[in-house]
Amino acid sequence: MAFNSIEYALFFGLVFAIYWLLSHRSQNLFLLAASYFFYGSWDWRFLSLMLGSSAVAWWIALALDRTNDERVRKRLVAVSVVANLGLVAIFKYFGFFGDSLVLLLDSLGFSASWTLIEIVLPVGISFFTFQALGYTIDVYRREIAPARRFSDFALFIAFFPQLVAGPIERAHNLLPLVLSPRSFSLYEFGRGGFLILVGLFKKVVIADGLAPSVDAIFRDGAHASGGDVWLGSICFAFQIYCDFSGYTDIARGSSKMLGIDLIENFRSPYLSKDPQEFWRRWHISLSSWLRDYLYISLGGNRGGRFATYRNLMWTMVLGGLWHGAAWNYVFWGAYQGALLVGQRAIGEIHRPSKAPWLLPIKIGGFFLLTCYGWMLFRARSLAQCVDFTVAQLTDPFTITLGLDRPPLATILALPVLVLIDWLQYAKVDSCFYRSWGPARRGLLYAAIAWLLVMGLSNAPSEFVYFQF
Amino acid sequence: MCWTILWLAAIEIGCQLLDRVEPIRESALGRPIAAYLERGESTARRLRAAWASDDPNLKAMIDAGWIERSRWRELPAQRTAETPHLVAFYGNSFTRQIASQVGRLDPAIAVRMIFGPVAPASHAYACFLEDRGEHAADAVVIGVVLEMLPGLRAMTRATQSVVEPSPYTFPRYWIEDGALVSADPAIRRFEDFGRALEDAAAWEAHLAALEGHDDFYLAALYNESWLDELAFTRLLKSAWTIRHQRSVEDPVIAGLADPASSEPVAVLVEILRRFGEQTRDDGRRPLILLIDTPAVSPKASRYVRDQLAAQSLTTILTADSCDGNDPRSYAADGHLSEACAIRVAEQVRNWIEAP
């Protein structure tokens, strides 16, 4: 039941209508049932997995709260880490590491011909396990109190708008919202509606419109010139941004209509001038999770310059691997880590100029670096990463394949997207339009709605982040 | 909300002006937008407009692909001293491209080309049947693009495309109790199509045939209604049409990954088997051209070839000469690149000239 489907519109309409008729307690139970139904519509078999992950995290958190014995507490949190990461390891990385081991043994001259069982990747596993893990670590660190009622905690894990592709919610944000009564607000309903509209606009009009052009470039790496790869990478940058942030907008909008505020996951990331700023604006829920639970646990910047560099690299490589079980994600993570380390290293030698005229150059330059990273991310194989890198460096201006022209709706929508992002960036406010007069605001809504209707003719594709 | 509705109304008025004021419509920006907005118009309305129009592109769109002997009278029909070989080709523009190259490679080969734009194998086979006694070809070639297999579930191109709904018709084939059976469309000739546009009963019969045997047909999208009047509703209709078309096409294309259990593949094999049998009955040599494109796996064409080999039918796969997944195998318009078409044509020529 994808967010851009008629089925979701019907499902959400029904949930919304019943939800606001219920008392707070019943609302939570109803939302939990709706969330399990939503998840089960992908694959009923994996519901037990999510239930198991929730039950373990809930029980461990209660046990952590009951004891002050640090040894026991450490063991308990270790169980949570092993259980959650074990699930991810089995379902997501088993095949990858198995295949890699076979290749390694082959290259060393050993014959390894065992057959690996194919394991289906459960939708959203990387998201709900990280959410459960974050919760138990927060309870361990005594930053939050554990949820007493299992159904409330299960709803925190399974809440359907953010279940399959985030944002990865933190217990200190979402759990209090689940536990406290909610009241309907027309203002929040309107904001939620706008977020859904913008999310659909990004996904349906831009991401789905660009997908065939990007696929054409990456389908056949051997014949693409450097110019083709740059074009494909730039288009992919917009595709993945609109796909993922579009999903997040619909998730946040749906949730807002139910009276629950999810955290912001994107803040005009392509207007970042350096890697550090980029990671404060891109997939914020993951980058802050990695910072709080991985980077800081590794020692953060407390061990001196080189330890900081090492910790940054580890965090980003593992962050890359979180996206998928393939080497190109590892390279992408390493590349992002190298950019962050590079920025720190340069910053220690000289302080970057803050001249305003330099800002567009910095933003443009960093956007190209980001696009190169997206090439690594989107590449179909290690060999394609290498071939494309060589092509991009040696022959950046030759275009041989050309780009399939995106649909008219997509071409018209891109300037609107850039304008929205620019206004959000310049006003430092994602709801910049609220300060506008009704005529100007109406024009924005109408333009987006019209482009959305135009873009409905684009071939629909699955959300990119569902595979993670 | 009121302002949003007002602005939507303003955009709608802009689109109406664009539709009605010729200079705006024909401007550099107006033309692609007008074409985009037209896609959601009901097919019946677009066909009626095309029939009444003097626009050569629209005329060509409605005129192409009809299965009528009278249209093929100018084509070569006899072998001569200069052209000791006469080869009849049936298919679509891919087949025509290869046929043209065959004629260029060897002037001793006269080429009789009959094709329909984006036509499926059912159209090519119906053309072959219609043309059977009309020529003295020593070899007959039928070209099949596997990507166009979903067309086997249609009776006209008009239900399959919002961009270029050519109204030519062809029979629908299916297998019943192991035998190939067919249903004919109610309109079979260009002139009949023109008459049906004016004759309610004939038009109803046409729609009834589509309703019965064309999986792409949806009355709400095909027939004229008040939804045609607004650009906004036309866009919604266009999206609905495209989604409906994909709901018919996608399972057929997905089924090509397992061709042995695909019903359209079984129908295709049976059509081609019958084609081979009938061509041999006529004392001619049959050849089947299986044309691969990046949208489908070459697995399906190899499966079809193996099935036909059991009937001793010769097939040529474009995938054997050009990598179907290599974008360089294709020209900008989506057809085979010239080099690729020549490589395939050489194979066809060698087969024609083989004793």
Explain what the structure shows.
The complex is a heterodimer of chains A (468) and B (355). With 468 residues, chain A is mostly helical. Helix content of chain A is 69%, strand content 0%. Chain A is built from 17 helices and no strands. Chain B has 355 residues and is an alpha/beta fold. Chain B has 15 helices and seven strands. In chain B, strand 4 and strand 5 (179-183) form a beta hairpin. In chain B, helix 7 runs parallel beside helix 12, helix 8 (190-198) crosses helix 9 (200-213) and helix 12 crosses helix 13. The model of chain B has no long low-confidence stretch (mean pLDDT 89). At the A-B interface, helix 17 of A face helix 1, helix 3 and helix 11 of B.
| Class from secondary-structure proportions of chain A | mainly alpha
Count of separate DSSP helical elements of chain A:
17
Low-confidence stretches of chain A: none
Percent helix range of chain A:
55-70%
The CA-CA distance between the termini of chain B, in Å, is 77 Å
Q: What share of the residues of chain B does DSSP label as strand, in percent?
A: 5-15%
* Class from helix and strand fractions of chain B: alpha/beta
Strand order of the largest sheet of chain B: 2-1-3-6-7
What is the rounded Rg of chain A? Answer: 23 Å
- Which word captures the global form of chain B? globular
Please estimate the helix content of chain B. 40-55%
